[in-house]
């Protein structure tokens, strides 16, 4: 394994790599070298020469590498919501959230929240900003491989709901 300043270096290649640049460039038959961050993007042969001891990560034919998405405002405690909240006008929606969130939070068990996190990862989300009213989503977030920034929300809460 190649060590760059004490860090392990990896190389992963793909049939296509989507760059999130101004032109939405798609690179064909490229690779990138990384440790904790992407070090370089180039043809795999060039990266193998530059990082001869790097660990190669195999990908399947016709693979595509995309940047991960960040959803900065999630409410996993409402994972049980299917038809309860009223969408459209913000204040009507907000009132439906305040009126329904305790019931929705009670229905959103750890397994449902974990499944929701897994589904989000499958669609390309790697990091979330979780907004929590009751804290019932903390444990499944801590156990999951999703990167989570956790916020405690006070909007519309009262002591009797938190007892």
UniProtKB/TrEMBL annotation:
Name recorded for this polypeptide: Amidohydrolase family protein
Pfam families named among the record's database cross-references: Amidohydro_1
Lineage: Bacteria, Pseudomonadati, Campylobacterota, Epsilonproteobacteria, Campylobacterales
UniProt KW RNA-binding keyword: no
Record keywords: Hydrolase
All copies of domain Amidohydrolase-related, residue ranges: 65-144
Example GO molecular function: hydrolase activity, acting on carbon-nitrogen (but not peptide) bonds
RNA-binding as UniProt keyword: no
InterPro entries: Amidohydro-rel, Metal-dep_hydrolase_composite, Metal_Hydrolase
